């Protein structure tokens, strides 16, 4: 494990202790672990100040990885749909956090409509990525990428997306939102979509 992964793992253990611990002395020790970690991480970690702040927020639930869903959509020319982030101007596959009350497939189709104005259907699960392996950040995510087929498209600029486009991944020059998807991930997804295979970390 990297230093960042060890920090997140130890923080998760301390969080679990604070949630389920009963003994007052043990609770104090778990909080001490979090306090020491907070001091250490500034010097040892590559995480940004915002990511570090998010990492040490109190939690009332057992700490588990978060879920992120992404849609991999191709047009008739074989180009892949990407959306441009309204705030940062970088590009990513349409998607977002998994929301309570929706299945993974329902979540990704909802995100596809909200971000890209595309009504679609899920074809299959292409990949499950662990951000600890691909793009380490404050929180650990499992990224579920679904191959989707577009049924209709009616994009309008919205609070999340300034524009959409279909891109040839082999000639991609736009800046990517690396925390959402890396170039290596996109290349792997393209390969999976052509071979019918699936990837799971």
UniProtKB/TrEMBL annotation:
Keywords: Hydrolase. One of its GO terms (molecular function) is hydrolase activity. Residues 62-189 form the Nudix hydrolase domain. This is ADP-ribose pyrophosphatase YjhB, NUDIX family. It comes from Pseudolactococcus chungangensis CAU 28 = DSM 22330. The lineage of its organism: Bacteria, Bacillati, Bacillota, Bacilli, Lactobacillales.
């Amino acid at each position: 494990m990297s230093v960042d992964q060890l920090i997140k793992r130890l923080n998760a253990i301390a969080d679990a202790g604070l949630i389920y611990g009963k003994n007052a002395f043990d609770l104090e020790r778990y909080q001490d672990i979090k306090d020491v970690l907070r001091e250490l991480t500034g010097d040892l970690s590559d995480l940004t100040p915002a990511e570090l702040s998010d990492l040490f927020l109190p939690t009332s639930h057992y700490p588990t990885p978060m879920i992120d869903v992404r849609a991999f959509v191709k047009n008739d020319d074989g180009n892949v749909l990407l959306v441009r982030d309204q705030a940062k101007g970088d590009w990513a596959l349409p998607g977002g956090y998994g929301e309570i009350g929706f299945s993974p497939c329902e979540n990704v189709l909802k995100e596809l409509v909200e971000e890209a104005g595309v009504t679609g259907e899920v074809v299959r699960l292409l990949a499950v990525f662990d951000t600890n392996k691909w793009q380490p950040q404050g929180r650990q995510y499992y990224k579920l990428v679904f191959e989707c087929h577009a049924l209709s498209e009616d994009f309008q600029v919205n609070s999340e997306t300034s524009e959409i486009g279909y891109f040839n991944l082999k000639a991609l020059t736009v800046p990517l939102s690396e925390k959402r998807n890396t170039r290596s991930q996109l290349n792997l997804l393209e390969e999976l979509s052509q071979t019918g295979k699936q990837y799971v970390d």
